[in-house]
Amino acid sequence: MKLGIASDHGGFQLKEELKEYLEESGLEIIDYGTYSEESVDYPDYAFKLTDGVINGEVKYGIAICGTGVGISIACNKVKGIRAAHCTDSYTARVIREHNDANIICLGGRITGIEIAKDILDNFIKSEFEAGRHKTRVDKIISREKGE
Ligand code: RB5
Asked: What are the tens digits of pLDDT across the range 108-122?
C-alpha cells in the first residue's frame, strides 16, 4: 500500500519518525514535505498531499501540523477529501470503518510517537464498512457536488 505524508514545521519531527516506522513496516511512502523545521504555511503542504490522494498517487494521506487542526481544515476544503483529526486509536479505526476517511491528521505537538504509531496501525488496517455508513457518507458527497 502506498501512503502519502505531509507536515508543516510543527509536524516535521513526528513526520520523520512516522515515515521511518512505516517504511520499516514495508509500506511505500511519498513524502510531500516539508523537509526541515523552517517555518512554513500548513495549507501549502495540505494541498500537496490532497493532490496526491485525489490523483491516486497514494491511497491514504497522513497530515501533520502542530495540533493537527489547521492542516485538517485545509485538507477538508478539497473535493473528495475526508480528513479526520485523530488523537486515539479507537477513532483511528472508526474514521475508516464509518467515515471512509482518506486522510488522517495528527498533532506533532500533541501526540507522542508510540501513540501515533498505534493510531496509524489502526487507520491503515481498517476498511470502510459501507452499508448504513455509505448512506451517510454519500450525503456528504452529494452536498459537496452541490446536489
Ligand atoms: C504552527 O505554529 C501551528 O500554528 C500549526 O502547526 C498548526 O498547529 C495549526 O493548526
From this structure: 999 999 999 999 999
